[in-house]
Amino acid sequence: MQVAGKNAIVTGGGGGIGGALAARLVRAGARVVIADLDGAAAEAVAVALNAEFPGTAVAVGADVCDSDRIAELIARCAAEFGPVDLYFANAGVIGPVGLGDDKDWAVTLDVNLNAHIRAARLLVPGWLERGEGYFVGTASAAGLLTQIGSAAYSVTKHAAVGFAEWLSVTYGDRGIRVSCLCPMGVETPLLRAGENSGDALGVAATRAVTTAGAVLSPDAVAELVLAAVDDERFLILPHPEVLDMYRRKGADYDRWLAGMRHYQARLLESIDGQ
């Protein structure tokens, strides 16, 4: 799909990967509704883009845990630009360190998974009528591998990958394209949340990512996402080495699990030794 002339919604668009996606989309000729729980952050991104490309971006403060708010985003896009062509389910949270409690899990599931499901429920019927639409879910390499330090993050990102797969299998032959973004380290506040948690397991969570491969800029990731959308490619891997890791996991699960336990032990030892 060429994004020029298309209408897009980007959640979590107030910064990080979402802000970079909004900018890349506008510069490629799209019109964008930028949504974020932090409405002021979304507005700042929209103002900067409209200064360069007038009338191409609007900002909405929205909680993707609320179906009514997602419906309002879709209605706002229709009113400002026209029907939604592309939806980037990008909002995400890191979740609790370790096992967390019920409240932690509820929030993490709501943002990292249920928000994708809510958006698809609202968009798919119209896309099927029109015969086209594009859903891009932001998951993580943790959704293919795992996340040391955070059960909730790992599980919800696995689920986000699974949901994107299901959408593609179910509707891919009816005009609905689907992509799933699975990066490792990207320089955003989310990456550093574990490091700043004051918990050894949280610090290990950050270091597990930053020592496994390059930490990319949000703009570099956004550029790769748009190239994948242009190719209508399902799996978007800004860190190509993730595919080799995923293949090794599938080839010998027990060996991979043992290796991850060893990796975690080394990380924790290095933290304890500081």
TrEMBL record:
It comes from the Bacteria. SUPFAM superfamilies: NAD(P)-binding Rossmann-fold domains. One of its GO terms (molecular function) is oxidoreductase activity. Gene3D superfamilies: NAD(P)-binding Rossmann-like Domain. Keywords: Oxidoreductase. InterPro entries: NAD(P)-bd_dom_sf, Sc_DH/Rdtase_CS, SDR_fam. Belongs to the short-chain dehydrogenases/reductases (SDR) family. This is SDR family oxidoreductase.
